[in-house]
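To close the section, here is one more complete example, presented without commentary so you can practise reading it yourself. The ligand is flavin-adenine dinucleotide.
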Amino acid sequence: MTKPIPAKARVVIIGGGVSGCSVAYHLAKLGWTDVVLLERKQLTCGTTWHAAGLIGQLRASQNMTRLAKYSADLYVKLEAETGIATGMRQNGSITVALTEERKEEIYRQASLARAFNVDVREVTPDEVKELYPHLNVSDVKAAVHLPLDGQCDPANIAMALAKGARQNGATMVEGVKVTSVLKKDGRITGVTCEQNGESFTIETENVVNCAGMWGRELARQSGVTVPLHACEHFYIVTEAIPGLSRLPVLRVPDECTYYKEDAGKMLIGAFELKAKPWGMEGIREDFCFDQLPEDFDHFAPILEMAVNRMPMLETAGIHTFFNGPESFTPDDRYYLGEAPELKGYWVAAGYNSIGIVSSGGAGMALAQWMNDGEPPFDLWEVDIRRAQPFQKNRSYLKERVSETLGLLYADHFPYRQIATARGVRRSPIHEQLKARGAVFGEVAGWERANWFARDGQEREYRYSWKRQNWFENQREEHLAVRSGVGLFDMTSFGKIRVEGRDAQAFLQRLCANEMNVDPGRVVYTQMLNARGGIESDLTVTRLSQTAFFLVVPGATLQRDLAWLRKHVRDEFVVITDVTAAESVLCVMGPRARELMQKVSPNDFSNEAHPFATAREIEIGMGLARAHRVTYVGELGWELYVSTDQAAHVFETLELAGADVGLKLCGLHTLDSCRIEKAFRHFGHDITDEDHVLEAGLGFAVKPGKGEFIGREAVLAKRDNGLSRRLVQFRLSDPEPLLFHNEAIVRDGEIVGTITSGNYGHHLGGAIGLGYVACKGESDADVLASAYEIEIAGTRVKAEASLKPMYDPKAERVRA
Ligand SMILES: Cc1cc2nc3c(=O)[nH]c(=O)nc-3n(C[C@H](O)[C@H](O)[C@H](O)COP(=O)(O)OP(=O)(O)OC[C@H]3O[C@@H](n4cnc5c(N)ncnc54)[C@H](O)[C@@H]3O)c2cc1C
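Output:
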């Protein structure tokens, strides 16, 4: 019997895998009525039914760990709530390291886990042997044990979530394919769907794309970008092995493998370094509980390592060779949130093989987000607004996901760069920089010079948790910026023009700083949400009465555009992405003025070109707009150059720079300089969860100017006092390094994590920023404590400061 399809719904969830079921469950729990989930075939018939069911709580960041931990806790309770046996058991997990580098990584993760209240302990190889007697530990260097990790039956987790959703009023209809999403005036109005060859329409203002590997094509039909692509994903299950009793889940990332004991059999799964993309020609219409053909040759190297690792496997028969498709994304992170292109179009898809452990938390977070109109906490890592429009290109995706699958178990070295699908977005001076030794990294598709190799030096990263091969290069660049002059190519900046009769009023309402300034002024500001959290960190340059020029990080451009567009009321404003129109060359350092004076007849004195102003200049035989601002804490100009003239301006600066020791500098140096100066970075130190005053950015907030989004929250925080402060740290021992996520220890207690870290080549030690709770405390109280930073289990003394340790009075910037 076919189920009736409602004519109207508050939300239509597309896809009945674990993701869709979790979103339905959580929306229903929040009291949403008229929740309708449509599944083209049967619940779980896509990827969910065949997952291995590992539930590991430890993820790369605080909020991802929070979500995974939420899933684990939920799945433990779900059976009692719904009566469906979920197979969830907390048998713990062990991750072993076979190299010193991996040991450092897992010990760092353990420190991070402790900062998030996840139960974890470091265990010796002998202890591993006790926990896991079948394991060959001869080359195991170290291990961590998480006793509350576990495993489950994935299909039943989804079925239990579906039942829980129904118990709370949601409707689930199987055998109904959504054929199109309807929209009008930039927002969702309904969906059309098909059941037994008949067409139906459901009126709704919200859809959630939970269509897994179908998600990209489904989104494309609505003009929405969801860049994901399926890959083949393998495991084998042995025949029953005599004497095999309950064991924790085991991960051996150095061999790309995981092991799960289930009912006396062993399941061995792989995250091989080079995966096989699948579904290039689309997905068969009748796909339902399907699997893909075996590929024994592909799996053989993994199996060989597995037999060495667990010798008992040598005689075990193989019961199942499983190959199933799963969707992967360019950066190995899933997508959550409202698509910037279409109001009411939500996404929860692209789970990169951790969809079971992620969906519980992701469903909760998305439901909360839909309910409140804002995410419950910082979800930028997985926010759909980080996707770049070009990333839906299928050739790009196919190449990239062949690498993404293996990333889950790859060494997560700091500064690790993606190797595939590179070179899509390039600065006009890319080739010049390359010829001068640039070693590139990638952000949002942009190739960016991260550091410059010397003549004859290898132009590749040698990754390590210690000093990497570019450490000395960075030191030279960093010191050149501090004592001479450096040149950075920041063409990857996002650039947005906001123009029109009401541009000033519009920006005044969105930005916390004063926008009613004279043309030529550059204003550093944040766009806040109603909680006072930071949605965007940017500079706004007034070009004329009606035109403003916004500069944002390359990685946040889509998010910033979406935020701006979402808030246009009946104002007359036009918002245009002009990123590709201008290159940005930054001339930074105490000798920047001398250099500028050599390439331009304009006057660069403080009187003629004061700090935080912009104006057109002649440079070489071309033109640029010179903005006197800095992200490295020195005298300097950001030169905005029409892309056609970028190469000419670069050559002009380089030629003249020979006389003043101009040094080409990379993004690593930008980062080390900005952390010395305690300049914040969006996504790390400041997010939509961080209150602008607690982030120490109150100087850029002007409540006196009148209404703006977040003003009430700013005033309330002023009245009620700060609960936490962003503090700058420097390690007393110059040897250890900080990257981010190291635990902050205050008077012996872990109180937070480092939000961004690097090496302060001028300050002479590793430096970092991080939040410290401070309810009711004065600055002196905060600083009176003894601070240490825990790195891979070792605590290192740190100096703390609430003012920038480098140039606290900003004398150099205004020099
Ligand atoms: C071999 C393997 C092992 C894995 N092991 C683990 C593990 O141990 N732990 C873990 O956390 N994760 C694991 N995963 C990953 C996990 O299985 C997935 O991340 C998860 O199942 C994805 O769920 P989903 O709901 O996003 O997608 P799916 O389960 O694929 O659900 C999408 C659904 O949408 C439906 N659909 C598509 N288009 C439409 C439409 N137009 N109309 C209506 N319905 C539509 C499909 O029929 C499908 O049922 C594994 C994956 C594989 C392949």
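Once you have examined the tokens, check your reading against these statements. The first strand starts at residue 11 and ends at 14. The chain has a mean pLDDT of 96.
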